[in-house]
Write a structure and sequence with these properties.
By secondary structure, the chain is mostly helical. The protein has ten helices and three strands; from the N terminus they run H-H-E-H-H-H-H-H-E-E-H-H-H. A three-stranded mixed beta sheet has the order 1-3-2, covered by helices on one side. It is globular, with a radius of gyration of 20 Å. It starts with a helix and ends in an 11-residue tail after the last helix.
């Protein structure tokens, strides 16, 4: 009997996880998440390091209470095919693989470490990872990647594109412990997210995905160059009117 019970739970557990994840994503289509798993992990790290004064900075703003420059800059910087793909940009993945192979070969020839490898994660994938999962390393990283595919498919199926972009703009990390456009605007520019200019929004997007390495308030040469490139791309994809093309 114990064996039978164990076997019964063995097939019920995956089903329960599927039902839970679907319900989780469906609820968060309408309810603004109070925190993300990345935020919780960062707060836990601070506690384990003995920094009990550390607090996450995050203040939710709906998309219509945020300058359209910020979501536009995020798309221009990270996922220019956001409106067209279904969560995974296979063209970008192929291009990134070819670029990274060249960078690795060049680094090996020079005997130097590889500097900047190109990623191909979409905004949908990053939203799934930041909101529900963890960074991980080794085996846990591969487990996270598998779950990331599942959650990405769920949010693409159950959320409109505007909701995905809204959640991402509120949970992306723009500085150490600074999450979301409102907290970033207040921390770096001393203004509300509704008043961000195109240049300021592009500078915030320019520090992604390495907000601890680069600073939006003290931009170095790389961030300045990337900011200008993002501004050009913002104009190229149609400016703020692009956001009206999203469902």
């Amino acid at each position: 009997r114990p064996r039978r019970r164990w076997r019964a739970w063995l097939w019920k557990l995956p089903l329960a996880l599927v039902v839970f994840s679907v319900a989780q994503v469906l609820v968060l289509r309408f309810v603004d998440p109070p925190f993300s798993m990345f935020m919780a992990a960062r707060q836990l790290d601070a506690v384990l390091e003995g920094d009990f004064r550390f607090r996450i900075a995050q203040d939710w703003r709906d998309l219509d209470r945020m300058s359209p420059n910020l979501p536009l800059a995020l798309v221009a910087a990270e996922d220019q095919n956001f409106a067209r793909h279904n969560g995974f940009d296979f063209t970008a993945i192929e291009k990134a693989q070819k670029h990274n192979e060249k960078m690795v070969a060049r680094a090996e020839k020079r005997g130097k470490p590889v500097r900047r490898l190109r990623g191909a994660s979409t905004i949908s994938q990053q939203t799934a990872k930041n909101l529900f999962l963890w960074q991980g390393s080794g085996p846990t990283r591969w487990l996270r990647k598998g779950l990331e595919v599942w959650y990405t498919a769920l949010i693409e199926a159950l959320w409109p594109k505007t909701r995905i972009l809204e959640v991402y703009a509120n949970i992306a990390e723009f500085g150490d412990g600074i999450y979301g456009g409102q907290a970033a605007a207040r921390s770096f520019f001393r203004k509300d997210a509704a008043k961000l200019t195109a240049t300021e929004a592009a500078r915030l997007a320019a520090v992604l995905p390495s907000p601890k390495r680069y600073s939006a308030s003290r931009p170095g040469p790389y961030v300045q160059r990337r900011t200008r490139a993002i501004e050009r791309q913002m104009r190229a994809i149609g400016g703020t009117s692009y956001l009206r093309t999203l469902d």
